[in-house]
Protein 1
Amino acid sequence: MKVLIIGSGAREHAMAWAASQSPRVERVYAAPGNGGTAMMQGKVENVALKAVDLDGLLAFARREQIDLTVVGPEQPLEAGLVDLFREAGMKIVGPTKAAARLESSKVFAKDFMRRHRIPTAGYHVFRSKEEALSYLDGLSSGSWPQVLKASGLCGGKGVIIAPDVETARSAVHEMFDDRIFGSAADEVVVEDFLTGEEASVFALTDGTSYRLFLPAQDHKRIGEGDTGKNTGGMGAYAPAPLVTPEVMWTVEERIIRPTLDGMKAEGCPFTGFLYVGLMIDGGEPSVVEYNARLGDPETQVVLPLLKSDFVDALMASVSGELWDADFEMHPGSAATVVMASGGYPDSYPTGLPVTIDPSLSSMPECTLFHAGTAYADGRLTTAGGRVFSVTAMGPTLKESLEAAYRGVGTIDFEGAVFRRDIGARAL
Ligand code: AMP
Ligand code: GLY
């Protein structure tokens, strides 16, 4: 069969890698893919179509008679790619536009959780500066910090944690007057600050049944010790020891099951990958956010840990037979370390040559996933902020981390930055 993966990050490289291992798959297309998918020998090939080129993607999928399409990032989901493919009779993994509101509208997600009594931070929604300011001014001194969130998609940047009323007021001005998040902040959620530790749980679902990947933790800040600016994610590991079997049971009973049942009852069943971002405090999980897709860099650890056939599970999910599918995990752990361009998450150079020491190929425990790279005329160059995600598996978290850092040591480009403390807190 032929599989089309939509997106261009390390998450999509990992999906293409996993899909290409399925004996039933003869060809994997990545649209647009990256240097890593371009360099994969054999089954994988890039297609020069952007992830948001809905009509182009549909025309390609029809022409090539693609058997299964998998959506990586959120923008095409919000734009209705899944609806378009389904109307055309094509098999696709992902939620419809209406179901993707769990990610694309924080107001929808918060109201949904309230309707279905799913644990999450208390919140208020504001549609004007005046309402927001008068609410914030009225809060008692014990209510701080508060968290301000643009409702719409902001590439992970739309969240401001305000320690005091002055910071919150200036965030409100930036959102409503300066429009720093554009129309994504037409509605603003102000929510209570949750304490605890974060982890992410990912489910593959057909709308009724679901299967869980191993729980993961990522590292969102650029600097060691979780300092500095927020990024797309600088590393991840799984399974996260914080998510004990008891916590996982609570997540399933109080969050995943009610989310899927609630979406179905409201007429927009959620299909595809459900990402639940959790805050866990004293063993009690609450939802920080939903995403309607797999995480990046978490995919680069949760997919290599899937032992059974990825494509078989995806096919079972699109035909509503996930309950019957194999979904078996490898024992042990996986870790991934992101290598980014100097300057990221602010501005950074691109087009820098990359060298990879041949010794990497004698490290079977390591798998190199590319993110912002380009490959042309036999040359590999940097092409984005996050450049690589170096994954390794091992019998323990410690061993997988050590192996991932050995892999990092074989890669060189000017100004490369990476965190040296991925997974340190869990050790
Ligand atoms: P989000 O885009 O909603 O995931 O928020 C980005 C990050 O902000 C999260 O990963 C948390 O670290 C933090 N955050 C968001 N909401 C809260 C909250 N209510 N309490 C504490 N931290 C939060
Ligand atoms: N790793 C965070 C995300 O994918 O949104």
Protein 2
Amino acid sequence: MVEVLDLKFKELISAEEIQARVDDISNQLNTKYEGKNPIFLGILNGSFLFIADIFKKLYIPCEVSFLKVNSYQNTSSTGKMKELIGLNQSIEGRHIVILEDIVDTGRTLDFILKTLEIHKPASISVATLLHKPEATLIPISLDYVGFEIQNQFVVGYGLDYNGFGRNSSSILIKVDD
Ligand code: IMP
């Protein structure tokens, strides 16, 4: 059992299992994107370890850049607004691979895809370390999924609970008291 702030977690996916899937996905990306000079767009903060581990295994010519999604309350409406920060190079005509930590409801990824499409890339594909199919409300095609997991809160390997828990090399799942 591992405690992160006031919650208890146990190991769900070991560091070795993660690295094996990272190797599989990197191999697929090396094959699919050979000669395409893709730009990998890593979504911070939760993906930082996934981005780094994938990127180290790529041997094709490619670039990496980092984006962040800010959520804020719009004073004139009740809904949460989202803003994509960090897109400071042209992606027009380029092949894009989004690297995400987890797809939960799918709202964040849906927003990212819609925002990037405006900039007319040649293609966009998505690699996510984790997917919670039962929680996903917006159907999005995910090209590379590390692991499908149950609809429970997880931390570790970059994912956090109120900022903590990112520094676990395995994925930990919340357990009830
Ligand atoms: P979505 O918009 O509901 O798909 O949520 C995506 C974002 O919510 C992820 O990029 C994470 O930052 C966060 N998130 C969703 N589920 C979890 C979880 O189980 N642990 C930690 N963060 C999560």
